[in-house]
Amino acid sequence: MGTGAFLDIKCGYLHNTLVTWFTRQYHSGRKGFVVPRRGFIPLTEESVHKILGIPRGDIEIKYEADYDNEDEIASSLFPGDGSRPKITTFATAIINNNNGDASFKKLWLIYIVSTVLAPTTDTRISNKCYPMLEDIDQANRLNLCKFVVAQLHEHLSKGKFTKGCLLYCMLRYLDALDCDGMELELPNTPYTINAWSKTHVDVVAEMDMLEHDPPSFGNFQLKGEFREESHNRFDLFGGPGGFETWMKQNIHPSCSQSDKLKATTVISKFASGVGTLFNQFASGVDTLLTELVQGLTAPATRNTTTSRIKRGTEERESDDTSSEDSAESDNDTNEDNVDIERDKKKRVTR
What we know:
mainly alpha
C-alpha cells in the first residue's frame, strides 16, 4: 500500500506550542511558511513524501461524501456500527484483523487518513474517505501527498490552524532547521517520520524557543536551501509576505478597517527606519512591534492606555497641588516666626 513508514512512527505526539506557532506562519499566496527573519519553507508534494513516506502516485484522491454507497461500504467493514463509527472502533477492527486482505487495507487507509493525514476534531471517521476505497488494490498508486498538500492549503488559508496534517507541519519545520552545531544524532532513515523521536522533538523545540509571549521560535537558522536573502524594510518579518502574515496574527479581531490601515502604516514606517539593526536586535524589535501593534488595535489596550495617561495626569496635578499647599504652609510659618521676634524686641525695650 506504500504506507509502511506509518508502522514505525518515532514521535507519536504533537508539540502543540511549536505547531500552533508554525501553522500561523503560512502564506497562502506563496503556498508555504514564511519564517520571520530566516526564510521560506514551501508546502510541496515532494516534501510530504520525504517526511511521511506516503504514496505519490498518479491516481487522484476522491475525498467527498457519497451517500448512495457509504451505507453499503460501511456495513461490509463494520456491520452494526453505522456509516461513521468511532475511530476507536476502527482501531479495534484493525487489531483483530490478521488476514491482510482487502478489508484490512480499507480499514487501514481510512484510519491513517482520519487520524494523521486529514484529521478533524470529530471522534468519528469521516465519510468522505469511502470513495478512495474503490480500488484498494491500487492504493500504492494514490497521490496521498497531493491530498495532504491540498487539505493543508485549504485549511491554513482559512485560518483553521487545527486541521490538516499537523504532524507534517511539525516535522517539516524541525527538519528545516540547521542543527549541525548541536550534534543532533538522528538515525539514517528514508523518511523523517521514522527519525525524529519525542526526545529529539522536545530538545530541539526547547532550544529553538524564544522568550516571547505568546511563544515564538527562532534561535536556529534554517538550512541553506530555505534561506532567503532580502534587503528591504520587511526583513524583520521574513519579507512582504511575512509582514502580511505577522500583521494578521497581531491585529485585534474587533479592529476596524481604518484602524488596521493606520496600524499597518505605523509599523511599516517604523520597519523602514530600523534598517541594519534588524540583524542585531531582531528578537527585541519583534517583541516591541508585537506589543505596539496589539496596543494600536486592541480596544482594551487603548482604554488601559487612556486610563494610565489620565491617572498620570491626575497624579501630577495632585503633586502640584500638594506642593502649592506645602509652600503656602511654609510662608504662614515664616510669618508667625517674624511676629514672635517682634514681640520679644518690644518686651526687651520696655
